[in-house]
Structure formats: structure tokens, C-alpha cells
Amino acid sequence: MSSDEFVVTPWNVEGDIDYDKLTKQFGTQKISPEILSKIKKITGEDHFMLRRGIFFSHRDLNVILDNFEKGKKFFLYTGRGPSGNTHIGHLVPWVFAKWLQEKFDVNIYFQLTDDEKFYTKSDLTLEDTSKFALENALDFIALGFNPEKTKIIINTRNIRRLYPIAAQVAKKINFSNTKAVFGFTNDTNVGMIFYTSLQSAPCFIEDLPVLIPLGVDQDPHFRITRDVAPKINKPKPALIHNIMIPALTGPGGKMSASDEKSTIYTTDSPQVVKKKINKYGFSGGQVDIEKHRELGGNPDIDVSFQYLRIFFEQDDDKLKKIYEDYKSGKMLTGELKAILIEKINSFLKIHQQKREEAKKNLSKFLLSDE
Amino acid sequence: MSSDEFVVTPWNVEGDIDYDKLTKQFGTQKISPEILSKIKKITGEDHFMLRRGIFFSHRDLNVILDNFEKGKKFFLYTGRGPSGNTHIGHLVPWVFAKWLQEKFDVNIYFQLTDDEKFYTKSDLTLEDTSKFALENALDFIALGFNPEKTKIIINTRNIRRLYPIAAQVAKKINFSNTKAVFGFTNDTNVGMIFYTSLQSAPCFIEDLPVLIPLGVDQDPHFRITRDVAPKINKPKPALIHNIMIPALTGPGGKMSASDEKSTIYTTDSPQVVKKKINKYGFSGGQVDIEKHRELGGNPDIDVSFQYLRIFFEQDDDKLKKIYEDYKSGKMLTGELKAILIEKINSFLKIHQQKREEAKKNLSKFLLSDE
To answer: What family is it from (chains A, B) (predicted)?
Structure first.
């Protein structure tokens, strides 16, 4: 792979992603100024993740919004593959989904795909992934979703509800389709080959159109769902895509739940957060203080700055000042990291309390199988 | 396909099957005189379906018997693809399974694969196949299985119990395996590709070895299961195979639930049974009575005689007399058919009563999902 190439699939993200190219490759639409102003008109707000292009691309979001304005509701669906503990990158689409739920006052389904992670990870048992699913669910609940309008799906637990829907989808997908979309080969296990139908199933769990906020790497699953939907007389799911959250160790991949170094977990202590960022945080700074003061840093590749931009500094003026100070050399890498460490630890302090409380409420959120 | 060729797969049976060749092709063992005498020793009986070679082949049946003699139990598992109403051919392995249950005093699981028939039949909905599943269950229960030791699995209904087991199997099967065993292609739908893991799942539902009485056309599924079993630390299932039950219209296929003409349903009235056999029953007789008296008939290809041999005349002496009288020309085709009609109608009279009673007991037999 040459330096200007990149790979984005549901199971592998590599290289320096050119999101303009990716949008063309995937055939999605960039979120236009018209869509942004329509969202602002409906919600009365201008979410920083939209404004900053963290959510950058979509499929049929305009249709969802137009119909909403005509009084036609929709529901939300997002999810997570529970291959390990939750890290801060996972929270990005969830926080945005919560905002959508509040502003549009709609139901949300959150799917934990314990079966998928079992099929794709040779070292994980189904017991492992089901345990991670329950752990991840706590982080989701901790963000403050409305229990009246929020249901958590765990695939193995809710399979009785999902399977008859997945079967409708599975009958309309052949092996060629999965080869073309996922690059499957004759060596791919039959669990993985079937699995995409289960990721499709929540799209049709309510008799309404669905909007899915998700990492752009998951788009291929729903490309299949969108092809199948009219064949089973269902509306095509609409999507809104976020960029990949960079690993702590730098661009060229996504933050991965299974790589300790590249990841800040939601359960990390303040000391661990500090150590990880100071030790592994990929820096856009110069080789020494003198050079940094002279030439300035590069916030566009600095992971600490990116985390502030993506999630932890929601105030545009403050973010702008940090950007300029770092770029001019006024702010040192250590100072930038200190800002991020403080922000993350403040966030995690509250999150970890809410995560504890979530243990008591978990059962309220789990989808029933009837 | 030339006249000496035949095809036997779980979804297609064609041609005049040479069971010796099939045994070699599939790599199964013929049931030996030693095995027959061991079964007789254990059960005190000599079941006519064994004696007559209706059950003709096996995998590891000797292991099951040897272990049983040493005090090691097993359980039974068989099933049916609910693509239509039950016909008399379906009852053959079930009647034999019931005998095994009684004689060995073991549990039996009966799987109704409503999902499979949905995946493989373009004209059937999942509602159709689930409805057929419940209808077929009544015929199974009507045969008199012990409700304490018998559980009926309906795939969509019991998927929560089956799926975690199926997932263990699915992770160890790749697309190549399903191509090799079932002849799947790139056009095969992903439901069918995954499905074999669900047919494997009941093999591992108890922590004991399993013995599966089944039509030999289903053997390929369990060839896969037997390859996978050691990889998931489970015993290989043992199998005992019955021959294909010929269609009413003659050899060169199996009786099919979806072809009205080739099939006698368990719910057919005496008049319908009489009409179907007289009208469609493939005959080994001569073109007219004179020729028949002169040359005699051929019981070996006569479907009415075969039905008596396979199921409806359990008395060897009576069967032998019919064979000889038909072969010598003493018995006419109409007379032979009349014997079969009487036998089937006597059987169905009682079966249909028991089938009605089964409606009350259905819930006792359905596997719970916990």
C-alpha cells in the first residue's frame, strides 16, 4: 500500500484516509450546507460534530429530514462490536445519536454484535464477547439515553426477535454480494457470511424508516441492506457517517479496542489517562522546544488536538485559540496534552459515576424477546 | 444424466439410486450382520426396517452400541424440513426413531427447519414454513412419543437456544466446505450457506453422544458436523440412514411434500388415498390381465409393494406371500393396490385420531427456550 492509499472496511481500517475520495468510492453524499441549515432549523441547534465535519457524509439524510418536516417520524439505530472494553472513540457516534434522539424525540436501538466479534476474532469466545457486550452497554446507558425510548439489542440474547427479520434479508443476499462488498473469500467462515443479515435486522424492527449514525467503516453492511430493502418491501435505511477516530499513536488506522497502547478506555483512571497520552499520544510538535517555538506545531496531525476537536472541546473559540497557539509555537506539546488530559479526566470522572449507576438500570434498557 | 446415474443431496434426489454405490460415494458403512445381532441382543427385537434394509447404512453406530453396552447413554435426534404437509414417507424414520427411544430409553429431539425451507423455496414465506412446522409436529406426536423424553425444536422459535451452538459450528466452516459438500455456488443465498450450522446445533444440545436416524439424503449436513465436532471438543454424531421412499408415481426420486400426485398425506381421506393409489401408483404389472397372468408382475419396482415392504406390512410371511403371488401373476395389480389401500387407510384412521389429540398436547412437546 503506497502512502496515498487507504483501506476502509468493517474489519480493517488502514492508511491516511482521504474522506473526499472515500465518499466517491463508497458513493455516499457529503453533508451539504443545505442539510446543515435544515437540521439547525428543525433542532434549533448547530451540533459541533456536524459543524466540524466529524459527521461528514450521508445517504438519504435529506429524505429523513424532509419527511420529518412533513410529520413523518423515523427511528435511530446504531451499535458496536463488543471485542473489548469501550474506548473514548466509541462514544463519538453515541453522543451524537443521543443528541438526535433528544432533538427529534425518537426511539433508538443500540445493537451489540457479540456474535460478529466471535466470528471475526479467533481468540475470543462467545462468552467473552457477550461479557464485553454487557460492559459496553453500561457506557452507552451512562450517556443519559431516555430509557422509555431506548432499547439495547444483544445479538445472541435477542436472536429470536432478530432472526426472522435477518432471514428475510439473508434470502436476498448471495455469496457474490458479500464477496463484492466485503471482499469475502472461499475461506471466510459461514458465520461471517451470514452475519450482515443480522446487522441489517434492526433496520426493520419498527415499521418506520430508520436513520443510522455510524462510523463510515460500517457503511458496506448498509449498502447491502439498502439493496435488499425494496426487495422485501421495506424502506431503505438512511445513514449519517462519522470519520474514523484516530488511534492515540497517530493517524493511519482507527482507535482499536484491542490495542492497549492506541486506546483510552472509559474505565481508565486519571493516572492511566495521563500516562497514555503523555507516552503514546502522537504529536504534531517539533523535535525540541526551541524548534517548536521557532516553527510551531501541526495541530492537523496532532492526535491530542484532534481529540479536542472531535469530542472534548466543544467551544469553537477555545478550540480556535488552542489551534492558533499550537500552530504558532506559543503552545508546547506538553501543554496541549495537559489540556486534553484535564478534559478527558473531567469527562471520565462523571462518566464513571454514571456507568456505576447504569448497572442498576441495565435491565430496563435491554430489548425483550417478545 | 444417463439412466445409471443418480443424485442424492439434501435438496435434490434424482435417478435410480444404487445404494451400494451411494454408500461408497458418501463413505458410510453398510449395516453389518454383527450390528444387527448386537441391536437384537440389546433390544430383544428385530425391527423389520433393519431386517429389510430400509435402514441400510450408518456412521459410528457400532460405537454408540458398544458404549451403550458399557452403560454410556446417548440421545436421539431427527427432523423434518416443513415445506408442506406430512406425507407417509416422512413417517418411516420417525417410527423407527420411536422404536429406538423405547428400546434404549433415551431422549429424542425433533427439529423442524422452518428457516431452511424458507431459504430454499422461493415461493414459501417464513409464515408458511412455520405453519407447516406446527402441522408436521402433530404427525410426529401422533406416533406416540414419550412427552417426558421428547422435545420438538422449531428453528425460528428455538433460535435463542440453537444460535450460540450453531455459532460455534459456523466459525469452523468456510464457504469452500459448503461448496464441496453441498455444491453451493456464488449465487447461493447466505441463509442457506449458514443454515447447515443450525442443523448441526441439536447434535450438541445435550452433553452426550447423539445418534441420528435420517434419510440418507441428509447425510452431507452431518459429514460437516462430524468434521467440526473435534474442533469444538464435542463427540462426532453417529448416524443411521434410511433409503429414499419412492414417489407414488415411481422410482427415480423421493416422495415430495410439494407434489400432490406423488404423495399421500397423513390427512388424506380414505377416498383420496384410494384414488391416488389407483390413479398414480406406479405398477410393476403387465399391460393387461392376460399378460399379467402369463408373465407375472415385478414387485421390486411396484410402488404399492414397496410401500408394504417399507412400512405397511410388517409381517414377513404375509409380505413374502404377496411378493410371490404378484411375481407369479396370481395377484393382479388392482388386488395388490387394494391391499395397500386397506393398510394405509387403517393406519391413517388411527393416526388421524391421534393427530387430533396431539393438538391438545403440542405445548408439552415444544422445547423451551431457557
So the answer is: Belongs to the class-I aminoacyl-tRNA synthetase family.
The residue whose grid cell reads 455459532 is: B167
Q: Which residues lie below 8 Å from residue A50, measured CB to CB, with a gap of 6+?
A: A31, A36, A39
Domains and CATH numbers, chain A: 6-249 (3.40.50.620), 260-357 (1.10.240.10)
Determine the residue of chain B that is closest to A175 in CA distance: B186
CA separation for the pair A220, A179 (Å, rounded): 11
Q: What is the DSSP letter of B310?
A: I
Which phi and psi angles does A157 have, rounded to 5°? -75, -35
Task: List residues in chain A touching B: CB distance below 8 A.
Answer: 115, 118-119, 126, 156-157, 159-160, 163-164, 167-168, 170-179, 184-191, 193-194, 196-197, 369
CB B139 within 8 A of CB B98: no
Cell of B66: 458398544
The CB-side HSE value for A132 (13 A sphere, CA atoms) comes to: 25
Among B156, B190, B197, select the one facing A170 at the smallest CB separation. B190
**What's the CA gap between B328 and B342, in Å, rounded?**
22
**Which residues are CB-contacts of A134 (< 8 A; sequence separation ≥ 6)?**
A154, A362
The answer to whether the Cβ–Cβ distance between B194 and A193 falls below 8 Å is yes
Determine, for residues A174 and B194 on separate chains, whether the beta-carbon distance falls below 8 Å.
no
**Chain B closest CA to A178's CA: distance in Å?**
9
* Angle of CA points B169, B170, B175, to nearest 5°: 130
In a structure prediction context, what are the per-residue pLDDT tens digits for chain B, which is 370 residues long? 444 688 888 888 888 889 999 999 999 999 999 999 999 999 999 999 999 999 999 999 999 999 999 999 999 999 999 999 999 999 999 999 999 999 999 999 999 999 999 999 999 999 999 999 999 999 999 999 999 999 999 999 999 999 999 999 999 999 999 999 999 999 999 999 999 999 999 999 999 999 999 999 999 999 999 999 999 999 999 999 999 998 898 866 666 656 777 789 999 999 999 999 999 999 999 999 999 999 999 999 999 999 999 999 999 999 999 999 999 999 999 999 999 999 999 999 999 999 999 999 999 999 997 6
Read off the C-alpha cell for B233: 471438543
Residue from the list B173, B186, B369 with its beta carbon closest to the beta carbon of A190: B173
**H or E element in which residue A321 lies:** helix A316-328
Size of interface A-B (CB pairs under 8 A): 110
CA distance A116 to chain B (A): 10
If you write DSSP's letter for every residue of A332-357 in order, what string do you get? -HHHHHHHHHHHHHHHHHHHHHHHHH
Q: Which of B167, B191, B197 sits opposite A126 (nearest CB)?
A: B167
Is A190 in contact with B184 (Cβ distance < 8 A)?
no
Return d(Cα B64, Cα B62) in angstroms, integer: 5
- A178 interaction partners in chain B (CB closer than 8 Å): 190
- Please give the residue of chain A at the shortest CA–CA distance from B196: A190
SS3 A103: helix
